[in-house]
Amino acid sequence: MAHIEEEFQKIEHENGWNTIFRKLANDHGVRTLEKKNDIALLSTNRGLNRFRDVLPYDDTRVRLQRGSNDYINANYVQVPWANRSYILTQGPLPTTSEHFWQMVWEQNSRVIIMLTHLVEKGCNKCWLYYPDYENESEIYFDEIDLKVTFVSERQEDHYTQRKFELTNLLTGETRPIVHWSDFDWPDHGAPSSPEPFLQLLCDVRHCGAFDSRFGAPILHCSAGIGRSGTFVLVDSILKMLAHTDNPNDISLIEVLAHIRTQRHGLIQTAEQLRFSYMAIVAGLKELDELEQSEGLFNESDFDGSTESDNDDDSKISRSLENINYELKKRAELTTNNSYSAHTTNDAETSLRLREERLKRNEGIKKKIDEIKAKLDEKPSSLSSSLFNNNNNESILTILMTKYRRHFFIGLLTLVTGSIFLYKFVRISDRTY
Predict the structure, then answer these.
(1) Of 8, 277, 317, 370, which is most buried with the most CB atoms under 10 A?
(2) Does the structural domain 3-302 have CATH classification 3.90.190.10?
(3) What is the pTM for the complete model shown?
(4) Distance of CA 147 to CAs 141, 168, 337, Å?
(5) Is 227 annotated as a binding residue?
(6) SS3 (DSSP) at 76
(7) Residue 207 is a catalytic residue
(8) Is position 225 annotated in a ligand binding site?
Protein backbone atom coordinates (compact mmCIF):
# COMPACT_ATOMS: atom_id res chain seq x y z
CA MET A 1 0.00 0.00 0.00
CA ALA A 2 1.37 3.42 -1.02
CA HIS A 3 2.10 5.84 1.79
CA ILE A 4 -0.31 8.42 0.29
CA GLU A 5 -3.09 5.85 0.48
CA GLU A 6 -2.14 5.17 4.10
CA GLU A 7 -2.28 8.90 4.84
CA PHE A 8 -5.69 9.12 3.21
CA GLN A 9 -7.10 6.24 5.24
CA LYS A 10 -5.67 7.64 8.45
CA ILE A 11 -7.14 11.12 7.92
CA GLU A 12 -10.42 9.59 6.80
CA HIS A 13 -10.58 7.38 9.90
CA GLU A 14 -9.85 10.31 12.20
CA ASN A 15 -12.19 12.61 10.29
CA GLY A 16 -9.34 15.08 10.26
CA TRP A 17 -9.78 16.88 6.94
CA ASN A 18 -10.80 20.21 8.46
CA THR A 19 -7.93 20.03 10.93
CA ILE A 20 -5.27 19.34 8.32
CA PHE A 21 -6.73 22.02 6.04
CA ARG A 22 -6.57 24.67 8.80
CA LYS A 23 -2.99 23.65 9.55
CA LEU A 24 -2.16 24.01 5.87
CA ALA A 25 -3.72 27.49 5.84
CA ASN A 26 -1.67 28.58 8.83
CA ASP A 27 1.52 27.29 7.25
CA HIS A 28 0.59 29.11 4.04
CA GLY A 29 0.24 32.36 5.94
CA VAL A 30 3.76 32.01 7.35
CA ARG A 31 5.33 31.06 4.00
CA THR A 32 3.72 33.94 2.13
CA LEU A 33 4.17 36.61 4.79
CA GLU A 34 6.46 38.67 2.58
CA LYS A 35 4.65 37.99 -0.70
CA LYS A 36 3.12 41.04 -2.35
CA ASN A 37 0.31 41.66 -4.82
CA ASP A 38 0.68 45.42 -5.15
CA ILE A 39 0.21 45.45 -8.94
CA ALA A 40 -3.19 43.82 -8.65
CA LEU A 41 -4.28 46.49 -6.16
CA LEU A 42 -3.50 49.44 -8.42
CA SER A 43 -6.59 51.49 -9.20
CA THR A 44 -6.24 50.74 -12.92
CA ASN A 45 -6.23 46.99 -12.25
CA ARG A 46 -8.79 46.47 -9.53
CA GLY A 47 -11.64 46.27 -12.02
CA LEU A 48 -9.79 43.53 -13.89
CA ASN A 49 -10.08 41.09 -10.96
CA ARG A 50 -13.10 38.84 -10.72
CA PHE A 51 -12.77 38.55 -6.93
CA ARG A 52 -11.28 41.13 -4.55
CA ASP A 53 -9.54 38.50 -2.43
CA VAL A 54 -8.01 36.39 -5.24
CA LEU A 55 -5.04 38.37 -6.50
CA PRO A 56 -1.84 37.23 -8.25
CA TYR A 57 1.48 37.50 -6.46
CA ASP A 58 3.77 40.07 -8.04
CA ASP A 59 6.79 37.79 -8.40
CA THR A 60 5.01 34.98 -10.28
CA ARG A 61 2.38 36.93 -12.19
CA VAL A 62 2.10 36.66 -15.96
CA ARG A 63 2.96 39.92 -17.70
CA LEU A 64 1.33 40.92 -20.95
CA GLN A 65 3.90 42.02 -23.49
CA ARG A 66 1.83 44.33 -25.67
CA GLY A 67 -0.07 47.44 -24.64
CA SER A 68 0.30 50.11 -21.99
CA ASN A 69 -0.86 47.81 -19.16
CA ASP A 70 0.85 44.43 -18.63
CA TYR A 71 -1.59 43.21 -15.96
CA ILE A 72 -3.70 40.06 -16.05
CA ASN A 73 -4.92 38.02 -13.08
CA ALA A 74 -2.73 34.99 -13.81
CA ASN A 75 0.31 33.25 -12.31
CA TYR A 76 2.97 30.82 -13.43
CA VAL A 77 2.88 27.69 -11.27
CA GLN A 78 5.85 25.36 -11.52
CA VAL A 79 6.51 21.97 -9.95
CA PRO A 80 10.17 21.26 -10.74
CA TRP A 81 10.15 17.76 -9.18
CA ALA A 82 7.50 16.76 -11.72
CA ASN A 83 9.00 18.82 -14.55
CA ARG A 84 5.65 20.56 -14.85
CA SER A 85 4.67 24.15 -15.67
CA TYR A 86 1.18 25.59 -15.66
CA ILE A 87 -0.51 28.97 -16.01
CA LEU A 88 -3.44 29.49 -13.66
CA THR A 89 -5.86 32.33 -14.20
CA GLN A 90 -9.37 33.47 -13.36
CA GLY A 91 -12.36 32.92 -15.62
CA PRO A 92 -12.26 35.80 -18.13
CA LEU A 93 -14.52 38.81 -17.65
CA PRO A 94 -16.12 40.76 -20.54
CA THR A 95 -13.34 43.32 -20.09
CA THR A 96 -10.50 40.79 -19.87
CA SER A 97 -11.34 38.30 -22.64
CA GLU A 98 -8.92 39.98 -25.04
CA HIS A 99 -6.22 39.96 -22.34
CA PHE A 100 -6.81 36.22 -21.96
CA TRP A 101 -6.30 35.49 -25.66
CA GLN A 102 -3.34 37.87 -25.76
CA MET A 103 -1.78 35.78 -22.99
CA VAL A 104 -2.51 32.55 -24.89
CA TRP A 105 -0.72 33.95 -27.95
CA GLU A 106 2.23 35.51 -26.14
CA GLN A 107 2.85 32.43 -23.99
CA ASN A 108 2.59 30.18 -27.06
CA SER A 109 0.14 27.92 -25.25
CA ARG A 110 -1.81 25.29 -27.18
CA VAL A 111 -4.17 23.86 -24.56
CA ILE A 112 -6.83 25.52 -22.35
CA ILE A 113 -8.54 23.62 -19.54
CA MET A 114 -11.77 25.24 -18.35
CA LEU A 115 -12.97 23.71 -15.07
CA THR A 116 -16.12 25.77 -14.60
CA HIS A 117 -19.45 26.33 -16.30
CA LEU A 118 -20.40 29.78 -17.50
CA VAL A 119 -23.21 29.90 -14.93
CA GLU A 120 -23.48 27.91 -11.70
CA LYS A 121 -26.38 28.14 -9.27
CA GLY A 122 -27.61 31.27 -10.98
CA CYS A 123 -24.29 33.10 -10.69
CA ASN A 124 -21.99 34.11 -13.56
CA LYS A 125 -18.71 32.25 -13.16
CA CYS A 126 -17.06 32.96 -16.48
CA TRP A 127 -17.66 35.08 -19.57
CA LEU A 128 -18.22 33.32 -22.91
CA TYR A 129 -14.80 34.20 -24.27
CA TYR A 130 -14.70 31.71 -27.14
CA PRO A 131 -16.78 31.45 -30.37
CA ASP A 132 -20.33 30.26 -29.79
CA TYR A 133 -21.13 28.41 -33.05
CA GLU A 134 -24.42 29.94 -34.18
CA ASN A 135 -24.07 33.56 -33.10
CA GLU A 136 -20.34 33.83 -33.61
CA SER A 137 -18.21 31.31 -35.45
CA GLU A 138 -15.28 33.67 -34.91
CA ILE A 139 -14.42 36.51 -32.57
CA TYR A 140 -12.22 39.47 -33.46
CA PHE A 141 -10.14 41.32 -30.88
CA ASP A 142 -9.17 44.37 -32.89
CA GLU A 143 -7.17 46.08 -30.15
CA ILE A 144 -4.70 43.19 -29.99
CA ASP A 145 -5.07 42.08 -33.64
CA LEU A 146 -6.18 38.54 -32.85
CA LYS A 147 -9.01 36.40 -34.17
CA VAL A 148 -10.42 33.19 -32.64
CA THR A 149 -12.20 30.81 -35.04
CA PHE A 150 -14.31 27.79 -34.12
CA VAL A 151 -13.07 24.62 -35.86
CA SER A 152 -14.76 21.58 -34.36
CA GLU A 153 -16.23 20.00 -31.25
CA ARG A 154 -16.32 16.52 -29.77
CA GLN A 155 -18.69 15.64 -26.95
CA GLU A 156 -17.35 13.08 -24.47
CA ASP A 157 -19.28 11.41 -21.68
CA HIS A 158 -18.28 13.91 -19.00
CA TYR A 159 -16.75 16.87 -20.83
CA THR A 160 -16.26 18.55 -24.20
CA GLN A 161 -13.24 19.02 -26.42
CA ARG A 162 -13.31 22.00 -28.75
CA LYS A 163 -10.76 23.10 -31.31
CA PHE A 164 -10.10 26.70 -32.26
CA GLU A 165 -7.70 28.55 -34.51
CA LEU A 166 -6.00 31.63 -33.07
CA THR A 167 -4.86 33.99 -35.83
CA ASN A 168 -2.53 36.96 -35.62
CA LEU A 169 -4.10 39.52 -37.95
CA LEU A 170 -0.83 41.42 -38.38
CA THR A 171 1.33 38.49 -39.47
CA GLY A 172 -1.30 36.04 -40.70
CA GLU A 173 0.12 33.28 -38.50
CA THR A 174 -2.46 30.79 -37.25
CA ARG A 175 -2.09 28.49 -34.26
CA PRO A 176 -4.35 25.57 -33.32
CA ILE A 177 -5.84 25.56 -29.81
CA VAL A 178 -7.44 22.63 -27.94
CA HIS A 179 -10.05 23.64 -25.37
CA TRP A 180 -11.45 21.32 -22.68
CA SER A 181 -14.62 22.34 -20.84
CA ASP A 182 -18.05 21.42 -19.44
CA PHE A 183 -16.67 19.08 -16.79
CA ASP A 184 -19.17 18.57 -13.98
CA TRP A 185 -17.37 19.96 -10.95
CA PRO A 186 -19.28 22.14 -8.44
CA ASP A 187 -17.70 25.36 -7.22
CA HIS A 188 -16.00 24.96 -3.80
CA GLY A 189 -16.78 21.26 -4.05
CA ALA A 190 -15.47 18.11 -5.67
CA PRO A 191 -16.63 15.57 -8.28
CA SER A 192 -18.60 12.64 -6.96
CA SER A 193 -16.04 10.17 -8.31
CA PRO A 194 -12.38 10.43 -9.35
CA GLU A 195 -12.77 8.24 -12.47
CA PRO A 196 -14.20 10.92 -14.81
CA PHE A 197 -11.56 13.37 -13.60
CA LEU A 198 -8.77 10.87 -14.28
CA GLN A 199 -10.19 10.30 -17.76
CA LEU A 200 -10.10 14.06 -18.36
CA LEU A 201 -6.51 14.17 -17.09
CA CYS A 202 -5.59 11.29 -19.40
CA ASP A 203 -7.14 13.04 -22.44
CA VAL A 204 -5.51 16.36 -21.57
CA ARG A 205 -2.12 14.66 -21.39
CA HIS A 206 -2.79 12.76 -24.62
CA CYS A 207 -3.59 15.93 -26.61
CA GLY A 208 -0.10 17.30 -25.92
CA ALA A 209 -0.82 19.80 -23.16
CA PHE A 210 2.67 19.35 -21.71
CA ASP A 211 4.61 19.29 -24.97
CA SER A 212 7.85 21.14 -24.18
CA ARG A 213 7.93 22.71 -27.66
CA PHE A 214 5.08 25.00 -26.65
CA GLY A 215 4.02 27.11 -23.71
CA ALA A 216 2.41 25.84 -20.53
CA PRO A 217 -1.25 24.78 -20.57
CA ILE A 218 -3.63 27.41 -19.24
CA LEU A 219 -6.05 26.35 -16.51
CA HIS A 220 -8.94 28.35 -15.15
CA CYS A 221 -12.08 27.83 -13.18
CA SER A 222 -13.88 30.86 -11.80
CA ALA A 223 -11.24 32.23 -9.42
CA GLY A 224 -8.45 30.06 -10.80
CA ILE A 225 -7.44 28.58 -7.45
CA GLY A 226 -9.82 25.84 -6.22
CA ARG A 227 -10.56 23.41 -9.01
CA SER A 228 -7.53 24.58 -10.98
CA GLY A 229 -5.26 24.03 -7.98
CA THR A 230 -6.68 20.54 -7.48
CA PHE A 231 -5.90 19.64 -11.09
CA VAL A 232 -2.31 20.85 -10.71
CA LEU A 233 -1.77 18.97 -7.46
CA VAL A 234 -3.15 15.64 -8.72
CA ASP A 235 -1.36 15.80 -12.07
CA SER A 236 2.02 16.76 -10.59
CA ILE A 237 1.91 14.19 -7.77
CA LEU A 238 1.01 11.37 -10.17
CA LYS A 239 3.82 12.49 -12.45
CA MET A 240 6.29 12.45 -9.57
CA LEU A 241 5.15 9.02 -8.41
CA ALA A 242 5.65 7.63 -11.92
CA HIS A 243 9.28 8.78 -12.02
CA THR A 244 10.69 8.06 -8.60
CA ASP A 245 12.37 5.13 -6.91
CA ASN A 246 11.39 6.44 -3.46
CA PRO A 247 7.65 7.18 -3.45
CA ASN A 248 7.72 7.57 0.34
CA ASP A 249 9.79 10.72 -0.09
CA ILE A 250 6.95 12.45 -1.91
CA SER A 251 4.78 14.58 0.35
CA LEU A 252 1.45 15.76 -1.02
CA ILE A 253 1.20 18.44 1.66
CA GLU A 254 4.66 19.79 0.85
CA VAL A 255 3.91 19.98 -2.87
CA LEU A 256 0.65 21.78 -2.12
CA ALA A 257 2.43 24.22 0.18
CA HIS A 258 4.97 24.87 -2.58
CA ILE A 259 2.46 25.64 -5.34
CA ARG A 260 0.51 27.86 -2.94
CA THR A 261 3.50 30.18 -2.76
CA GLN A 262 3.05 30.83 -6.50
CA ARG A 263 -0.68 31.54 -6.57
CA HIS A 264 -2.73 32.39 -3.53
CA GLY A 265 -5.19 29.89 -2.05
CA LEU A 266 -4.77 26.87 -4.33
CA ILE A 267 -7.32 24.25 -3.25
CA GLN A 268 -10.02 26.20 -1.47
CA THR A 269 -11.75 23.64 0.73
CA ALA A 270 -11.10 20.54 2.81
CA GLU A 271 -13.40 18.67 0.43
CA GLN A 272 -11.11 19.48 -2.50
CA LEU A 273 -8.09 18.34 -0.50
CA ARG A 274 -9.84 15.06 0.26
CA PHE A 275 -10.71 14.62 -3.41
CA SER A 276 -7.05 15.21 -4.35
CA TYR A 277 -6.04 12.27 -2.16
CA MET A 278 -8.84 10.13 -3.62
CA ALA A 279 -7.87 10.93 -7.21
CA ILE A 280 -4.19 10.20 -6.56
CA VAL A 281 -4.97 6.88 -4.84
CA ALA A 282 -7.23 5.89 -7.76
CA GLY A 283 -4.64 7.18 -10.25
CA LEU A 284 -1.94 4.96 -8.77
CA LYS A 285 -3.86 1.97 -10.10
CA GLU A 286 -3.79 3.47 -13.59
CA LEU A 287 -0.35 5.03 -13.42
CA ASP A 288 1.09 3.16 -16.40
CA GLU A 289 -1.90 4.04 -18.56
CA LEU A 290 -1.67 7.70 -17.56
CA GLU A 291 2.03 7.82 -18.42
CA GLN A 292 1.55 6.10 -21.75
CA SER A 293 -1.24 8.52 -22.66
CA GLU A 294 1.06 11.54 -22.55
CA GLY A 295 1.90 12.63 -26.07
CA LEU A 296 3.01 15.48 -28.30
CA PHE A 297 0.74 18.20 -29.60
CA ASN A 298 -0.22 17.22 -33.15
CA GLU A 299 -1.03 20.23 -35.31
CA SER A 300 -1.91 18.00 -38.26
CA ASP A 301 -5.10 17.02 -36.39
CA PHE A 302 -6.44 20.40 -37.48
CA ASP A 303 -5.79 19.73 -41.20
CA GLY A 304 -8.90 18.16 -42.68
CA SER A 305 -7.43 17.93 -46.20
CA THR A 306 -5.68 14.65 -45.41
CA GLU A 307 -8.92 12.86 -44.52
CA SER A 308 -11.38 11.14 -46.82
CA ASP A 309 -14.71 12.65 -47.83
CA ASN A 310 -16.55 10.04 -45.79
CA ASP A 311 -14.57 10.98 -42.71
CA ASP A 312 -15.35 14.65 -43.33
CA ASP A 313 -19.07 13.92 -43.69
CA SER A 314 -19.16 11.86 -40.52
CA LYS A 315 -17.25 14.55 -38.62
CA ILE A 316 -19.63 17.25 -39.87
CA SER A 317 -22.59 15.11 -38.86
CA ARG A 318 -21.17 14.51 -35.39
CA SER A 319 -20.35 18.19 -35.02
CA LEU A 320 -23.90 19.21 -35.96
CA GLU A 321 -25.34 16.75 -33.46
CA ASN A 322 -23.00 17.95 -30.73
CA ILE A 323 -23.67 21.61 -31.49
CA ASN A 324 -27.42 21.03 -31.43
CA TYR A 325 -27.09 19.19 -28.12
CA GLU A 326 -24.99 22.00 -26.67
CA LEU A 327 -27.44 24.68 -27.79
CA LYS A 328 -30.32 22.79 -26.18
CA LYS A 329 -28.32 22.39 -23.00
CA ARG A 330 -27.50 26.09 -22.91
CA ALA A 331 -31.11 27.07 -23.60
CA GLU A 332 -32.21 24.94 -20.64
CA LEU A 333 -29.38 26.33 -18.54
CA THR A 334 -30.35 29.92 -19.24
CA THR A 335 -33.95 29.18 -18.27
CA ASN A 336 -33.10 27.29 -15.08
CA ASN A 337 -30.64 29.90 -13.90
CA SER A 338 -32.82 32.95 -14.65
CA TYR A 339 -30.62 34.65 -17.20
CA SER A 340 -31.71 38.03 -18.42
CA ALA A 341 -34.59 38.08 -20.90
CA HIS A 342 -32.27 39.20 -23.68
CA THR A 343 -29.82 36.34 -23.14
CA THR A 344 -32.61 33.77 -22.90
CA ASN A 345 -34.25 35.01 -26.09
CA ASP A 346 -30.92 34.90 -27.90
CA ALA A 347 -30.32 31.31 -26.85
CA GLU A 348 -33.86 30.20 -27.74
CA THR A 349 -33.75 32.04 -31.08
CA SER A 350 -30.38 30.51 -31.87
CA LEU A 351 -31.73 27.04 -31.10
CA ARG A 352 -34.92 27.60 -33.11
CA LEU A 353 -33.04 28.87 -36.17
CA ARG A 354 -30.65 25.92 -36.08
CA GLU A 355 -33.52 23.41 -35.79
CA GLU A 356 -35.38 25.09 -38.67
CA ARG A 357 -32.24 25.03 -40.79
CA LEU A 358 -31.68 21.35 -40.05
CA LYS A 359 -35.33 20.58 -40.94
CA ARG A 360 -35.03 22.50 -44.21
CA ASN A 361 -31.83 20.64 -45.05
CA GLU A 362 -33.52 17.33 -44.28
CA GLY A 363 -36.50 18.29 -46.48
CA ILE A 364 -34.27 19.32 -49.38
CA LYS A 365 -32.26 16.12 -49.09
CA LYS A 366 -35.48 14.06 -49.07
CA LYS A 367 -36.77 15.79 -52.22
CA ILE A 368 -33.45 15.26 -54.00
CA ASP A 369 -33.54 11.57 -53.09
CA GLU A 370 -37.11 11.27 -54.42
CA ILE A 371 -36.18 12.95 -57.72
CA LYS A 372 -33.16 10.69 -58.09
CA ALA A 373 -35.32 7.64 -57.43
CA LYS A 374 -37.89 8.74 -60.05
CA LEU A 375 -35.17 9.37 -62.63
CA ASP A 376 -33.76 5.91 -61.98
CA GLU A 377 -37.19 4.30 -62.36
CA LYS A 378 -38.36 6.26 -65.47
CA PRO A 379 -36.57 4.29 -68.24
CA SER A 380 -37.65 0.94 -66.90
CA SER A 381 -41.20 2.18 -66.32
CA LEU A 382 -41.43 3.52 -69.89
CA SER A 383 -40.23 0.31 -71.49
CA SER A 384 -42.51 -1.68 -69.26
CA SER A 385 -45.55 0.39 -70.23
CA LEU A 386 -44.82 -0.09 -73.94
CA PHE A 387 -44.81 -3.84 -73.83
CA ASN A 388 -46.65 -4.85 -70.67
CA ASN A 389 -49.31 -3.62 -68.34
CA ASN A 390 -49.79 -4.66 -64.71
CA ASN A 391 -51.09 -8.06 -65.84
CA ASN A 392 -48.20 -8.64 -68.25
CA GLU A 393 -50.49 -8.29 -71.31
CA SER A 394 -48.92 -7.52 -74.70
CA ILE A 395 -49.79 -4.44 -76.79
CA LEU A 396 -51.46 -6.60 -79.46
CA THR A 397 -53.70 -8.18 -76.85
CA ILE A 398 -54.72 -4.77 -75.53
CA LEU A 399 -55.48 -3.50 -79.08
CA MET A 400 -57.61 -6.57 -79.86
CA THR A 401 -59.65 -6.20 -76.67
CA LYS A 402 -59.99 -2.73 -75.27
CA TYR A 403 -59.38 -0.83 -78.52
CA ARG A 404 -60.65 -3.38 -81.08
CA ARG A 405 -63.14 -1.05 -82.85
CA HIS A 406 -60.60 1.75 -83.18
CA PHE A 407 -58.03 -0.74 -84.38
CA PHE A 408 -60.22 -2.12 -87.23
CA ILE A 409 -61.38 1.33 -88.28
CA GLY A 410 -57.80 2.46 -88.50
CA LEU A 411 -56.79 -0.67 -90.36
CA LEU A 412 -59.68 -0.29 -92.87
CA THR A 413 -58.79 3.35 -93.43
CA LEU A 414 -55.21 2.43 -94.05
CA VAL A 415 -56.13 -0.28 -96.61
CA THR A 416 -58.69 1.92 -98.46
CA GLY A 417 -56.26 4.82 -98.61
CA SER A 418 -53.59 2.57 -99.98
CA ILE A 419 -55.93 1.30 -102.80
CA PHE A 420 -56.93 4.80 -103.83
CA LEU A 421 -53.33 5.91 -103.83
CA TYR A 422 -52.36 2.93 -105.98
CA LYS A 423 -55.11 3.63 -108.56
CA PHE A 424 -54.18 7.30 -108.68
CA VAL A 425 -50.57 6.45 -109.41
CA ARG A 426 -51.56 3.98 -112.20
CA ILE A 427 -53.86 6.48 -113.90
CA SER A 428 -51.16 9.14 -113.77
CA ASP A 429 -48.66 6.75 -115.35
CA ARG A 430 -51.02 5.86 -118.26
CA THR A 431 -51.75 9.49 -118.99
CA TYR A 432 -48.09 10.26 -119.04
Answers:
(1) 277
(2) yes
(3) 0.71
(4) 6, 7, 30
(5) yes
(6) strand
(7) no
(8) yes
